[in-house]
Amino acid sequence: MTGESDRAPAPHPRRPRGRPGHTRDDVLRHAIGLFNRRGYDAASISDLARELGVTKSAVFYHFDSKESMLAAALDEALDALSDAVADGEQAVGGSGAYDRLRSTVQAAVTILVQHLPAVTLLLRVRGNSPLEQQALKRRRDLDDRIAVLVQNAVQEGGIRGDIAPDVISRLIFGMVNSLTEWYQPGGAVDEGTLAASVTGVLFEGLASDHGR
């Protein structure tokens, strides 16, 4: 039996790589902000590392490439919007398409505010890579699902029939997507008030006399 002095020193715990205080989410938040300010193609890992005050290797500890950051950002926006559309589609069990469409739009506005930087980045994607093309496909799929609700709401008489359903869809998308250009989180209008305002303006104007 050895004495206390004969014991081998306990190994030092391994130090985590990367700069303390910067989590994966921290890095992603800064990356999204950088991509929105400079454009994805113009921004570099060096720019991001400089902004974070770390080395490039510290950035690569969390993400293996700039494209993987873009993928995470687009997935964040698309997954959240997909959940909003799914919730709206299933809302108010047994209700008509008008109510489901209204619930979907209100949920989409709330999600947009909660994930504003990521959604802003999504709306600026132009399909310059397979990753961006896949994101655009997922976005079109969401648009198509909302367009079906619009078509059903028109057929059920909840929405006025003197405007083509595809025009109505574009009006909805245009109004909701424009929020990324001017809305400031933490300002005078909270997300609940904003969602209620947008749906109120849209659906008061779209409701048919029968649906009012």
From TrEMBL:
Residue ranges the UniProt entry marks as DNA-binding: 44-63
Ion transport found in the keyword field: no
Protein species of origin: Mycolicibacterium komossense
Statement: the UniProt record of this protein carries the keyword Manganese: no
Alphabetical UniProt keywords: DNA-binding, Transcription, Transcription regulation
Pfam families: TetR_C_24, TetR_N
InterPro entries: Homeodomain-like_sf, HTH-type_TetR-like_transc_reg, HTH_TetR, KstR2_TetR_C, Tet_transcr_reg_TetR-rel_C_sf
Protein name: TetR/AcrR family transcriptional regulator
Region Disordered: start-end pairs: 1-25
Compositionally biased region (Basic residues): 12-21
Every HTH tetR-type domain range: 21-81
